[in-house]
# Entry
Amino acid sequence: MKYVGLHAQISKNNRRSALLLIAFPLLIFIAVYAFCFFMFQPNWEEVNYRFITYIPFVAAGVIIWFLIAYASHSSLIQMATSSHPLERKDNMRIYNLTENLCMSVGMKMPKLFVIESPALNAFASGINEKTYAVTLTRGIIDHLNDEELEAVIAHELVHIRNKDVRLLIVTIIFVGIFGFLVQVLFRSVLYGGGRRKSNNGKDGGGAAILVMLLIAVVVYALSMVFKFALSRKREYLADAGAVEMTKRPLAMAGALRKISGNSNLEAKSEDVKQMFIDNSESSKGFMASISGIFATHPPIEKRIKVLEQM
# Structure
C-alpha cells in the first residue's frame, strides 16, 4: 500500500466521516421508503404520504439512539474489556513512551488503561480529548521491548489523531440500528406478520413484511461490508502513521510478529474487537473467507510485508 502522509490520511478520513454521516441515514430513509412501498403500493400518494409521516418519528428515534450510544461508548468499552486505569507510579515506562510520542506531534496525552490479560493486544477509544484513551494488555506490556511497544502506542495514537476511533463508533452505532431493525422485522414475521392484512383486505401484510425483512437484511449486510472495509483500511493507515512518528518500520513489524497468534482477547462485544490492533479471530470462518470482506482486520502478514517495504 502506498503511504501518502499523515495529514493526507486525516483529510481522507474526515471525508470518509462526512460520507458515512450521509450514507447511513440515507440507507435508513431508503429502508423506510421501501417499507411504505411494499405496504401501500400501488397507491403512490399513500406511499409518499406514509413516508413523510413516518420519517420524523424514525429520525427522532435514530437521533436518540445515536446520542445515547455515542455518549456512553467509553464506559461500555471498559465494561466489555474489564479494563482499569494504568497507574503512573507503577508504569513509568508506558507513561514516558506515551508522553514523548505525544510531545513529538503536539497532541494532548490520552488516558491509559490496562487489561489484565496475557494476550498481546491494544486499542484506542474515545470521541474527544476528554475521553480519548489507549488501552494495553498486560501481555503486550510484558512481551514487547521499548521500541516495539513505542510503535504500538504510536499506532493507537495515530488512530486518535486520524479520528479513526470516532469514525468507527459512528459505523458501529448505525450498523447496530440496522441490526435491531432486522431483529424487529424477523420477530414480526414469527409472531404476527402472517396474520396482518393489507388495506384492500387481502392477506398481503405478511408478505410485505417478509419482503421488508429481506430488504433490511440486504441493507444490514451492505453496511457491515462497508464498516469492515473501513476497519481494514484504518489499520494500514495507522501502521504507516506509527512509522512516521517513530521512524522505525521494523519495530512496528516486529511488534506485529509477536502479536500474531497471541492476540486473542476475550471481550463481551464483537464491536469492541474491531478496535483491537489485531483481531485475527475475524479472519476465521466461512463468511470471513469470502475475499476477506467480512474480516475486520487485514491479514497481519500483509501488514508486516507493507512495513518491510518502507
